[in-house]
C-alpha cells in the first residue's frame, strides 16, 4: 500500500525543513570552535598520522590561505595545529568521514568554488540526516512489512533518502485517456502496435500456444510525429497501467541513481503487470557505448541496468517496453538485439492524407465555420509534422479570438500555416522601398523558376512581409500529389528553384545580397546528398561516401573518405549548384518581362496568391513562358 501522493508530499516537506534547520544548527556549532592564536605547524604526514590515530577532532580547510587547521583533544587538552604544505588529496574527505572527524572549509568570498563550500558545509550534514532517515525508514518497513505506513523519508525526493524509489509517473491506462482514435494517420504504426495491444489484453493466450511475444518495440521517427502519443494509445487501448519515464530525466542524476531508478521502475512494473513501460527519448541513455577513454560511467551503468532488466523479466506476465527516439542510429546495438527492442516501428512524417486527417482531428477540438477545405491546407504543408499541424489549428483558433470571431475560418488557418512555417509577421522590420523591391524580385525569381521548371508544383503564395524568423519573404510551393521517389532531374530542379532568388537579384540589379543565405544552404545540402549518399553524380557513381547522421533530425552525413576525395566532392557539389544557378539564370533571362511585371505587382501588394501569380505568368501577351511540363490548373 502506498500513502497517497498529497500526504507523502506533506511529510516530505516537513522533513526537508527539519533537515535544513538541523544542518544549519550543526554547522554553526562546528564553525566558531576553531580558535586562532599561536598555532604549531606540522607536516601533512603528521596530520594524516594524527587522523589515523583518532586524535584529530575537528578539521578546517582554508583554501584561501592554503592551510589546513585542525584540533586534537578536547576541553583543556584541546590543541590547534596547522599544515600549509599539502597535496590535492581526493581521499581526505573519505578518510575524515571514516574517522568521524568534524570538518568544514572556508573559501574566500571571491572564490568561484562557492558550490564546493556549500556542499561541504551544508551538504554533508544534510546527507547524514537523510542517510539516517533512509536507514530508519528501511528498518521500519522491514519490521512491519512493506505495508507499514512509512514516513517516507525517501519518497521520490531527489536526494539521499530517495535512493531507489524512482519518480516514475504511473498513470492507469484508462487515465492516459488516449486511444488509437486520437492518433490520425500512422496506420502502419498502429497496425504493428495492435499486436502488442492484443498481447497485453490476453497474455495467457499467447503463453498457451508458446509464442514469444515482443518484449520491446522502438518507435522511431522525426520529432512531433506522435511517438509519445502512440505509446500512450497502446496503454489506453489495452487498458493497462502506463509507466512513463524520459531518458533525459536520467541525465542530471547523481551517480548510481540512474541504475537504481531503472531497477525500481521494473520492480514496480512487475507488480502491476500486464503493463507498459515507456522510455521516451531513449537515446539519451541508450547511446552507443564508446570505446574511447572518455566514457560516461553513469550513463553506461544505467544502460547496462536497462539491458539486464529487459533480459530478466518474465515475458509471460505481459510487460511490454516501448521506447521512442529520433536518433535510432546512435543507439547501442545491444539494445536492438532480439529479446530487447527487437521490433522497430517507424513513425514517419504524415503524408498528404495523413496531414488532412490530423488537421481534421485537431479541428474537432475547436469551433470551425462550415466547409473548411482541409485538403488545401494539407497540400500547402508538405514536411509538417503532426505537432506542427496541431499547432497550426491552435494558432488559427488564437487568431480567431484576436479578431473577435467565435469560429475559426479558412483564412485563420491559412494565416497560421505561415506563422508556424515562417514565424509571426514582424511589424518592427520596416524595409525601405529599394529593399522591398529586391525582396520582391528575389521571391518572384524563385516562383518563376519553380513554375517553369515544374508545372506540377505550382506556387500557392508569395509574400514579402518580414517574419519573426528573420525571413524577409517567402514563396510557398504546394505539392499536388505525394512523392516517395525523387529523380535526379527533380533534385536538380529543386536546386534551380533555390538559386532562382539570387539569380533574379543578379540579373536585375547586377549585385547580390545576404538574402539568399538560407537558399544557398539548402541547395548545397541537396547537392551534397546527391553526391555522397544518393549516388547521383557521374563522377563518383553509386558509392556511399558518407554515413547518415540524424536522419530524423534533418542532419546531413558524415564523410567516410579520404581528404583528397573530400576535396573532389566539394568540387562536384559546387558544379551541381552552379548548374542549378545557370538553369535559373536562363529561365529568368527568358522570362524577364514577366519577372518585372510580377515583382512590381508583388512589391505593391506584398502578398499574392498562387492564382494571381499564375494569371500574370500565363497571360497570353507574347511573353508567356514555355513550360517544361504543362501546369496543373
Ligand atoms: P513525438 O513524441 O513523436 O515527438 P508527440 O507524440 O509528443 O510527438 O506529439 C506531439 C503532439 O502532436 C501530440 O500531442 C498531438 O497533439 C500532435 N500529434 C502528433 N502526431 C499526431 C497524429 N498522428 N495524430 C494526432 N495528433 C498528433
Ligand atoms: Mg515525444
Ligand atoms: Zn530565397
Can you lay out the helices and strands and say which pair or pack?
Layout: H1 5-30, E1 40-41, H2 44-52, E2 56-62, E3 67-72, E4 79-83, H3 92-98, E5 102-106, H4 114-144, E6 169-171, H5 173-176, H6 187-201, H7 203-209, E7 216-220, H8 227-238, E8 242-246, H9 248-251, H10 257-272, E9 275-280, H11 283-286, H12 297-312, E10 319-325, H13 333-336, E11 343-346, H14 352-363, H15 374-380, H16 386-402, H17 410-422, H18 433-453, E12 459-463, E13 474-477, H19 488-509, H20 517-532, E14 546-548, E15 557-559, H21 563-590, H22 592-605, E16 607-609, H23 610-618
Parallel strand pairs: 1-4, 2-5, 7-10, 7-11, 8-9, 9-10
Antiparallel strand pairs: 2-3, 3-4, 6-8, 12-13, 12-16, 14-15
Zinc ion is lined by residues 442, 446, 501, 516, 519.
Overall morphology: globular
Mind telling me the CATH class of the largest domain?
Mainly Alpha
Poorly predicted spans: 32-36, 140-164
Overall SS class:
alpha/beta
Largest sheet: 6 strands, mixed
Q: Tell me the count of domains.
A: 5
Mean pLDDT: 79
Bound molecules: adenosine-5'-diphosphate, magnesium ion, zinc ion
The proportion of residues in beta strands is: 5-15%
Write out the strand line-up for the largest beta sheet, numbering strands in chain order: 6-8-9-10-7-11
CATH topology tier name of the largest domain: Methane Monooxygenase Hydroxylase, Chain G, domain 1
| CATH homologous superfamily caption of the largest domain | Peptidase M41
The value of Rg in angstroms is 33 Å
Percent of residues in helices: 40-55%
What's the total helix number?
23
Q: Cα distance, first to last residue?
A: 68 Å
Number of strands: 16
CATH architecture of the largest domain: Up-down Bundle
Amino acid at each position: 500500500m502506498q500513502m497517497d501522493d498529497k500526504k507523502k508530499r506533506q511529510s516530505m516537506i516537513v522533513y526537508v525543513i527539519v533537515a535544513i534547520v538541523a544542518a544549519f544548527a550543526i554547522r554553526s556549532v562546528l564553525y566558531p570552535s576553531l580558535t586562532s592564536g599561536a598555532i604549531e605547524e606540522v607536516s601533512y604526514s603528521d596530520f594524516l598520522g594524527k587522523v589515523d590515530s583518532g586524535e584529530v577532532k575537528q578539521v578546517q580547510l582554508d583554501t584561501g590561505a592554503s592551510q589546513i587547521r585542525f584540533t586534537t583533544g578536547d576541553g583543556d587538552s584541546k590543541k590547534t595545529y596547522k599544515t600549509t604544505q599539502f597535496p590535492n588529496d581526493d581521499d581526505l574527505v573519505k578518510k575524515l568521514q571514516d574517522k568521524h572527524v568534524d570538518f568544514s572549509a572556508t573559501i574566500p568570498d571571491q572564490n568561484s568554488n562557492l558550490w564546493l563550500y556549500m556542499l561541504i558545509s551544508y551538504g554533508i550534514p544534510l546527507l547524514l540526516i537523510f542517510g539516517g532517515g533512509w536507514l530508519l525508514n528501511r528498518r521500519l518497513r522491514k519490521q512491519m512489512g512493506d505495508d507499514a505506513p512509512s514516513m517516507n523519508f525517501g519518497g521520490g525526493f531527489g536526494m539521499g533518502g530517495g535512493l531507489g524509489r524512482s519518480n516514475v509517473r504511473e498513470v492507469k491506462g484508462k487515465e492516459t485517456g488516449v486511444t488509437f482514435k486520437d492518433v490520425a494517420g500512422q496506420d502502419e504504426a498502429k497496425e504493428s502496435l495492435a499486436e502488442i495491444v492484443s498481447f497485453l489484453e490476453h497474455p495467457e493466450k499467447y503463453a498457451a500456444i508458446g509464442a514469444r511475444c515482443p518484449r520491446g518495440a522502438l518507435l522511431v521517427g522525426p520529432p512531433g510525429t506522435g511517438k509519445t502519443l502512440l505509446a500512450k494509445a497502446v496503454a489506453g487501448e489495452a487498458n493497462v497501467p502506463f509507466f512513463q519515464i524520459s531518458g533525459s530525466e536520467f541525465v542530471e542524476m547523481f551517480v548510481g541513481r540512474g541504475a537504481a531508478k531503472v531497477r525500481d521502475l521494473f520492480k514496480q512494473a512487475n507488480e502491476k503487470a500486464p503493463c507498459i513501460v515507456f522510455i521516451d527519448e531513449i537515446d539519451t541513455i541508450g547511446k552507443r557505448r564508446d570505446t574511447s577513454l572518455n566514457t560516461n560511467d553513469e550513463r553506461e551503468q544505467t544502460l547496462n541496468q536497462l539491458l539486464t532488466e529487459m533480459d530478466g523479466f518474465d515475458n509471460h506476465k505481459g510487460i511490454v517496453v516501448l521506447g521512442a527516439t529520433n536518433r535510432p542510429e546512435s543507439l547501442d546495438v545491444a539494445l536492438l538485439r532480439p529479446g530487447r527492442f527487437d521490433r522497430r516501428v517507424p513513425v514517419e512524417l504524415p503524408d498528404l492524407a495523413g496531414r488532412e486527417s490530423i488537421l481534421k482531428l485537431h479541428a474537432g477540438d475547436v469551433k470551425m465555420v462550415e466547409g473548411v477545405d482541409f485538403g488545401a491546407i494539407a497540400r500547402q504543408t508538405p514536411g509538417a509534422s503532426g505537432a506542427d499541424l496541431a499547432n497550426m489549428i491552435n494558432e488559427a483558433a488564437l487568431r480567431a479570438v484576436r479578431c473577435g470571431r467565435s469560429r475559426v475560418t479558412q483564412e485563420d488557418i491559412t494565416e497560421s500555416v505561415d506563422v508556424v512555417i515562417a514565424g509571426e509577421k514582424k511589424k518592427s522590420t520596416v524595409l525601405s522601398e529599394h529593399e522591398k523591391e529586391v525582396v520582391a524580385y528575389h521571391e518572384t525569381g524563385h516562383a518563376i523558376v519553380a513554375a517553369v521548371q515544374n508545372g506540377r508544383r505550382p506556387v500557392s503564395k508569395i509574400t514579402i512581409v518580414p517574419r519573426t524568423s528573420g525571413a524577409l519573404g517567402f514563396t510557398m510551393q504546394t505539392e499536388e500529389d505525394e512523392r516517395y521517389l525523387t529523380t535526379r532531374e527533380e533534385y536538380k530542379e529543386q536546386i534551380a528553384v533555390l538559386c532562382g532568388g539570387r539569380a533574379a537579384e543578379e540579373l536585375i540589379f547586377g549585385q547580390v545580397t545576404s538574402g539568399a543565405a538560407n537558399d544557398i544552404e539548402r541547395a548545397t545540402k541537396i547537392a551534397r546528398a546527391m553526391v555522397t549518399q544518393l549516388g547521383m553524380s557521374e563522377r563518383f557513381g553509386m558509392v556511399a561516401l558518407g554515413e547518415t547522421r540524424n536522419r530524423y533530425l534533418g542532419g546531413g552525413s558524415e564523410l567516410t573518405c579520404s581528404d583528397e576525395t573530400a576535396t573532389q566532392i566539394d568540387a562536384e557539389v559546387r558544379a551541381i549548384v552552379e548548374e542549378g544557378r545557370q538553369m535559373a539564370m536562363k529561365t529568368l533571362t527568358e522570362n524577364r518581362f514577366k519577372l518585372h511585371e510580377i515583382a512590381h505587382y508583388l512589391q505593391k501588394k506584398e502578398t499574392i496568391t498562387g492564382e494571381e501569380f499564375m494569371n500574370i505568368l500565363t497571360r497570353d501577351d507574347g511573353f508567356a513562358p514555355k513550360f517544361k511540363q504543362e501546369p496543373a490548373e
